[in-house]
Amino acid sequence: MKILITGSNGLLGQKIVYACLGNYLNEVELVATARGENRLIEQNGYTYHSMDISSKIDTLEVIEKFQPEVVIHAAAMTNVDACETDKESCLINNVHAVEFIVEACNKIGAHLVHVSTDFIFDGLGGPYAEDAEPNPISYYGWSKAEAEKIVKEKSDSWAILRTILVYGVADHMSRSNVVLWAKGALEKGNPINVVDDQYRMPTLAEDLAEGCLLAATKKANGIFNISGPDYMNIFELVNRVADYFGLDKSIVHRTDSSGLNQPAKRPPRTGFDLSKSRSILGYRPRSFEEGLAILEGQLKVQS
Ligand SMILES: NC(=O)c1ccc[n+]([C@@H]2O[C@H](COP(=O)([O-])OP(=O)(O)OC[C@H]3O[C@@H](n4cnc5c(N)ncnc54)[C@H](OP(=O)(O)O)[C@@H]3O)[C@@H](O)[C@H]2O)c1
Predict the structure, then answer these.
(1) 73-115: per-residue pLDDT in tens?
(2) 115 CB less than 6 Å from ligand 1?
């Protein structure tokens, strides 16, 4: 099966590339696309082509050129506060770009696997099932909810995969994530303030990539929740990171969201009911500590 992915330089995009060179080697012919140069260390075993999804011409030309059977849309403007302060860029990259991708997929009859977020919810009623009603409280959340509407209303063949707080290690990353941030700060002995009023189900990037490839190879239809299985607040998460790596927890200080002064609001309690993705896709997420063990192994290889 020929699969084209967007955002192959991102955390999820990279994990999809590496899964296609690993477990899916005999099943998938991969076309990886991203903005600018390919930043992956491994550059063989797949085709790379630059594609800026904010350009309609670029997006239509590249997708039509490669004629994939499935497109996995992993690119997005993901910095929630930057989306709040630069709404125009967020609108172009997270909403208009999805219009272009849907149009290109419909033109060539490709199935679309679109990646979305728990931030489409207000966080008052989590954990959420797939049919829960979106009610975003940030511009990023709004942009991703709009993108979902476009996919549902305009795409001829689609799956939407929603995920939560993705963590992992990647090559030349443009953004860090909560696990690497906490581990780095605690190793340096820097005291950190961590919120205890935001509940999430943190997702190992490899598990999300696997969810995307399960949905792609099965050409699954509809909405699927794809996250880790463990529900915790961010303060607990950081404490579990400290426990796992044997770091000093006494410098982790409890705070609440009101003390952070971030431009974008965060939903207090998200989390997902995973029963649909487990039964229909055969999705099997790893526990948080299993995820940390995988990340630890990758950090050892890098150093
Ligand atoms: N990370 C999370 O905690 C989280 C949580 C819920 C949902 N999600 C969703 O999961 C998906 C994957 O996110 P991620 O964790 O892999 O984030 P990421 O590491 O920030 O990757 C996103 C990638 O999108 C690329 N991108 C942005 N604008 C682009 C454009 N105009 N053309 C081409 N590429 C563009 C970025 O390119 P550059 O590297 O060049 O900037 C980046 O590599 C996104 O849909 C996101 O909304 C993520």
Answers:
(1) 999 999 999 999 999 999 999 999 999 999 999 999 999 999 9
(2) yes
Verdict on whether the full-model pTM lies above 0.90: yes
For the chain, counts of helices (H) and of strands (E): 11, 13
Domain housing 25: 2-175+202-227+271-286
Q: How far is the CA of 141 from the centre of ligand 1 (A)?
A: 14
Beta strand ranges found along 91-247 (DSSP E): 111-117, 158-163, 166-167, 192-195, 199-200, 203-204, 222-225, 232-233
The mean per-residue pLDDT over the stretch 194-211 comes to 98
Spatial separation of the C-alpha atoms in residues 71 and 157, rounded to whole Å: 11
CATH at residue 142:
3.40.50.720
Strands 199-200 and 232-233: antiparallel
Distances, alpha carbon 218 to alpha carbons 26, 145, 281, in Å: 15, 24, 8
> How many angstroms separate the alpha carbon of residue 249 from the centre of ligand 1?
31
Residue whose CA is closest, atom 42 of ligand 1? 10
Q: Is 212 in the pocket of ligand 1 (CB under 6 A)?
A: no
Q: What is the pLDDT of residue 259?
A: 80
Q: How many domains does the chain have?
A: 1
Judge contact between 219 and 111, C-beta under 8 A.
yes
